């Protein structure tokens, strides 16, 4: 069973589907970023389609969503055009934290502080604050 195969019936019969494989699984390739991977895939599509289908429709599932988005952007400077971009359950975009402490750790510390204050007010125990 292929990944994404439940989605194949959703595509029209006359629309060819190309599933791109991670290059690291088939050859020795070093790709350092999502943008580099998108350009790598764009070049594969250009050579594979060879001008036969200038319009491509891109589908990204889960963590493939950001890659599909970058691939769509990379097609702006190519002979291919992005006819549509569909993202299914992509991860939310967020800016990297400026702190080395994760947001969850900071939130846990804040909750601990609030809990300690609440306990100290209810029990008159001042050691928790």
UniProtKB/TrEMBL annotation:
It comes from the Eukaryota. Residues 12-106 form the Thioesterase domain. This is Thioesterase domain-containing protein. InterPro entries: AB_hydrolase_fold, Thioesterase. It comes from Pelagomonas calceolata.
């Amino acid at each position: 069973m292929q990944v994404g195969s439940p989605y194949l019936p959703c595509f029209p019969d006359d629309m060819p589907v190309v599933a791109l494989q991670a290059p690291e699984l088939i050859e020795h390739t070093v790709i350092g970023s999502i943008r580099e991977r998108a350009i790598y895939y764009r070049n594969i599509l250009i050579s594979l389609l060879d001008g036969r289908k200038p319009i491509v429709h891109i589908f990204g599932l889960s963590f493939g969503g950001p890659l599909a988005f970058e691939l769509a952007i990379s097609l702006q400077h190519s002979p291919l055009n992005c006819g549509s971009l569909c993202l299914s359950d992509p991860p939310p975009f967020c800016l990297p934290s400026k702190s080395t402490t994760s947001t969850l750790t900071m939130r846990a510390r804040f909750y601990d502080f609030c809990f300690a204050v609440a306990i100290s007010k209810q029990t008159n125990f001042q050691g928790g604050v």
